[in-house]
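hiii, so i know i said id send this last week but things got crazy w the move. better late than never?? heres the sequnce for the chain we talked about at the cafe, plus the structure i predicted for it. fair warning i was half asleep when i ran it
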Amino acid sequence: MRAQPITTPPVAQTVPDDQVKTTVIKFPNALLTKSATEKLCILTASGLYTKELGKEIERACFACSHDTGLELSNITTNKTSQTKFDTTILGFLRNIKTRFKSNNQQFLLCTPPSELVDLLILTGTYQEYTIVDNTFTTVPYDKDENSSTTPKNKAKCSSETQKTHPTITRQIIELNTSLKRTAILEKGLETADRCVKHFLPQAPPRAEGYSFSVFYKSSEKVGGDFFDFVALTADTLGILIGDVSGHGLEAAILMGLTKKVIALRAKDNRFATPRDVLIQANVDLYADFTKYNFATALYGTLDLSQGTFTFARAGHELPILLNTSGVPTTIESKGIPLGVAQNKLFSTALTQETITIPPGGYALLITDGITECWSPRGETFGRQRLLFTLSQAPRTLSCQDFLDNVLASVMAFAATRPQEDDMTALLIQRI
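okay and structure toks below
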């Protein structure tokens, strides 16, 4: 199969941390990762090599203001040509080497694959490049003993590189080792992210006379927000939304535990009140939370025939009711988070409320990531801004379009600022 032509610009994502700033540029069949510290830049290409990828490698190298290492060890074989590289790579490498030399910068090839080494050897340019082999091993070649491509001379080249540039060689090896460890961690987080998303409903339920829409976005690879729909009876639907303190893997584990416990308690006693479900869930969860962990949750039952929503709120964000006049109302209720107090105090603090969603009206449930969304100027979106946004949204929109309209204002407010908390919104529309 030929390499797919790039019809849209590559997608770039920058993930800064305390020491390494990493930018990922995605192509249809390849990935280019740029990792930079204050002294060194490493470019790692993987996937299918194309002329477009070569141009992007060249541009990325030219943008580096420090010594730079290029790693091409994970290039896959082109099924059509049965090769990993074509001759265009030689031109790009020559341009990069020339530019770096004129700027008194070091350009190094890190553990180049044998196919690239062969191309450099065939063109007589292998000795012009500084080669860093992370393992400092050599690859045997069936060449003449006097050839510059023999293992002996290759080993000499690697050894000379270490002697000439010991500091940069050590930095490249240390950075590559760190990046590989990070890659393993990232892979684990991606697996956890898939598991977390599998915990959550893949689509809203269908119910005659109602429409449901959900928005979910984690601030990190894995998040602590959760939601669920629990089928109780033919006329009753359980609805859950919650947020576990913290971020990352610990929050994700507690999220899965909390969501499952509440859902099982709701299913075990389909006619239990939302307040009783949360009280029993707190009994189940209290021993599994430390003094540094807690979870907020709102669980309610929607009577599909009457349009009533009865709920209890364990320290979670207050729900918002929108009637046909377009006036949003915050529904007050009391409660403390799950896992912070034993059952007597928890049950005493927890109240239960009932609202009626009128035909043409909405009920909105959110996590605090919506109201605490930060702007580049350091302001939060806030509940008052959310209420105003809801009051301005057209009532003629579908449930999904209505939620999208509201969230568009939230995202415009955030602009390019990365958010510190997960965001979840669940909208119920009574048609």
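btw Confidence is low (pLDDT under 50) at residues 1-18, 135-164. thought thatd interest u
miss u guys!!
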